[in-house]
């Protein structure tokens, strides 16, 4: 299974093509819209999210509510395009002079300058339109398809906020998976720790008042995975490696860790690894999950627990120093409309990105021309490893 996305932030539409989805999977646009709507919310979002109503149109690969096994194309229209038609239209124009809202002032922290240098775009709008986190809507659409596949084989994925700026949510070890889904959906900052919600919102409001932005940490939990998904035999088949690469590819993400992660550096081996037990009902089990569900690039059968850190969004009302590429003179960075904190939305994005990698690894491992084939194979595999 693979996917491609296309689309500029203020262009006509975002397009996702997903290829390799098993046939006969029940899939409707409501399945995808639910994810898209979740991504749009969260305290700290800017005005753009009031303009957009992200709803998907399925234009291929699905007939009468079921996948055909052919490529699925998903379209999300940018409602803001009507305000940008002149600026973003694909038709040729007489002279470059006519191009409005050209950008010659690169914003620190964005792709503007590096992309401008690489692709020789002196109007750096040609870079920022694609580097914008708007693209994550298209990735969430792909992830929503992955989540549907996973649901059929008893694997569930949820993302939530662990930290915003200096406010850390406590772990909720007794919370069930469904509670996590419900709590994160009810919380304006998508956290499971309701006692920290107000402090998180206050931190966002304060940053906004100061013309600044803040980041945070999001966590994704995957339940229902059998052991042995991924592989130890080659670097690019290690599932934790694939997830890590994919998480870092989310706009503004700077770090990733599984389980205790960086804390492992401060612990002894005896306090780090997860001891192995066996009983005939469950098969092999661990009493702890310090390694976040991975050993040797493969799942251990414990929940996958992965965190990602998002830097503060670099579009600031509080100016940072930069250089105009036309005059080569210093200036204080231009003001663009922005979110002051998109960490709650990023938890939804990361949930879908992790779901994609997990589903892809499963489809790599088992025959999956049809969803029933995949279900049968997974059932047999779960039985085999229980008796191993
Ligand atoms: C973004 C800037 C803002 C965000 C946008 C990402 O958009 P605009 O420049 O139109 O105000 O709202 O995020 C989205 C559009 C989205 O769908 O998440 C940026 O510069 O990355």
From TrEMBL:
Cofactor annotation: FMNH2
Entry GO CC: cytosol
Residues annotated for NADP(+) binding in this entry: 39, 45
CDD domains: Chorismate_synthase
Lyase recorded as keyword: yes
Enzyme class at the top of the EC tree: lyase
Pathway entry: Metabolic intermediate biosynthesis; chorismate biosynthesis; chorismate from D-erythrose 4-phosphate and phosphoenolpyruvate: step 7/7
Record-listed FMN binding positions: 130-132, 251-252, 296, 311-315, 337
Keywords, in A-Z order: Amino-acid biosynthesis, Aromatic amino acid biosynthesis, FAD, Flavoprotein, FMN, Lyase, NADP
Catalysed reaction equations from the record: 5-O-(1-carboxyvinyl)-3-phosphoshikimate = chorismate + phosphate
Enzyme Commission number, as recorded: 4.2.3.5
Cofactor comment text: Reduced FMN (FMNH(2)).
Molecular function GO labels: chorismate synthase activity; FMN binding
GO biological process: amino acid biosynthetic process; aromatic amino acid family biosynthetic process; chorismate biosynthetic process
Assembly behavior: Homotetramer.
Family listed: Belongs to the chorismate synthase family.
Function: This reaction introduces a second double bond into the aromatic ring system.
Stated name of the protein: Chorismate synthase
Record organism: Halalkalibacillus sediminis
Source taxonomy: Bacteria, Bacillati, Bacillota, Bacilli, Bacillales
